[in-house]
Write a structure and sequence with these properties.
2 domains, two-stranded antiparallel sheet, 4 strands
């Protein structure tokens, strides 16, 4: 991570300016946004109905997410109902950790995942469901680590515990053991990207020069939550970065919401809330805003995984090759530990759209691979993605 602690992060030039912008977004008509409901089941409002807000505070006040209280099995939807359930789950999980009760801790983690509608997904928080995993020891170390850095401590002054794959379930569990740690999922990432877009384009012509600390991640499998301007890949998808980067951003976003909440309390814009609860409120604001982008997509459409043989571009365009070169270079900066094979796996279908005589030099140039290595990896990936007849792009 580029920042040692919260103060260093919030005082950095770009983050400080973005925080000023976010404070204004909390004022009436400070941030206007809308999206169309794609499903009553998932949004709580009738399909095709428009949800709108005129500020971050307005978004929080309009929070509505139909869910199930995993403790009583009753229906909940409002912020107060949800907050009360999460407070109780947090208390029970912390008690289980304190008592060293592995079975109770694992059970409560499952209840948290059930509230978040991800318990049935086998790949989400998989370790927390594994009866062989020492969940008490892990969560105890993570509680200590997150408590240290969320209270202003230096990252270097505290050993980072071994943590599991970050995903939409793990972030929910961590948020309930460390006050001020925010839940970071696809909706939150989308909302931050939309806010950054409006912030940056007020004084800049393009997002191309957006600094790395403002390139927030988004849930890369639901296109309606893609905050990128059409044709650009400024904001990386969760799946396109390493686990470490996602974890680092979760910490930074928590610092960001912590500081924003403290400023709102000092200004009197928000009252009768603790700073910890205000982080949760701001998180829910982003959650509601991030249901979807407003002006580029009318409904949520899941992107089907591309299968079959990639098609060649109907008309070769050197500019598209340059854009892809820049995209790969940015990806490498975000993922310095990724091997050449890992990078090619991410960009396989995009690269396959170009003729071999254009594609191979780009791979060799950007990934520092030999021609032999490029061809070897390429043939291996082709078999991995689709065992098909020979393709003329290879």
């Amino acid at each position: 991570m580029d920042f040692r602690n919260k103060q260093e992060y919030i005082r950095s030039h770009n983050i400080a300016a973005f925080l000023d912008f976010l404070v204004n977004c909390c004022k009436p008509d400070g941030f206007n946004h809308q999206w169309l409901s794609y499903s009553r089941r998932y949004t709580g409002i009738a399909k095709g109905t428009s949800w709108t807000c005129n500020s971050l505070i307005d978004a929080f006040e309009k929070y509505y997410w139909p869910a199930e209280d995993p403790i009583s099995n009753s229906k909940i939807s409002s912020f107060d109902e949800t907050s009360a359930v999460l407070d109780e789950l947090s208390k029970r999980l912390l008690d289980a950790i304190s008592l060293g009760d592995k079975l109770a801790a694992q059970h409560i983690c499952r209840l948290i995942l059930r509230w978040g509608a991800v318990e049935s997904k086998p790949h989400v928080a998989a370790k927390f469901k594994d009866p062989e995993f020492d969940i008490v020891s892990h969560l105890s170390k993570m509680k200590s680590f997150l408590g240290h850095i969320m209270s202003g401590g230096d990252l270097e002054a505290h050993e980072l515990p071994t943590f599991q794959r970050m995903d939409s379930g793990v972030t929910k569990v961590y948020a309930l053991i460390a006050p001020g740690f925010a839940i970071f999922d696809s909706r939150v990432g989308c909302a931050l990207g939309l806010l950054v877009r409006e912030f940056w384009l007020k004084n800049h012509v393009t997002l191309e020069d957006l600094p790395m600390e403002l390139r927030f991640l988004w849930g890369g499998n639901i296109e309606s939550r893609n905050p990128n301007v059409a044709g650009q890949r400024i904001f990386p998808a969760f799946r396109a970065v390493s686990n470490q980067i996602r974890f680092d951003q979760n910490i930074q976003i928590s610092w960001l919401l912590q500081e924003l909440g403290e400023r709102l309390l000092k200004s009197g814009m928000v009252k009768d809330m603790t700073s910890t609860k205000l982080v949760r409120a701001l998180e829910t604001s982003l959650f509601m805003i991030g249901y979807g982008t407003s002006n580029t997509r009318k409904s949520s459409t899941r992107v089907k995984k591309e299968v079959g043989r990639p098609r060649l571009l109907s008309e070769f365009d050197g500019n598209k090759l340059d854009l892809l070169r820049n995209e790969i270079q940015v990806f490498k900066q975000l993922n310095p530990k990724f091997s050449g094979t890992a990078v090619l796996r991410v960009f396989y279908f995009k690269l396959a759209a170009f003729p071999r005589e254009s594609r191979n030099p780009l791979i060799i140039e950007t990934l520092n691979l030999t021609s032999h290595a490029t061809n070897t990896i390429w043939y291996s990936l082709r078999k991995e993605y689709q065992k098909s007849t020979l393709e003329d792009v290879v």
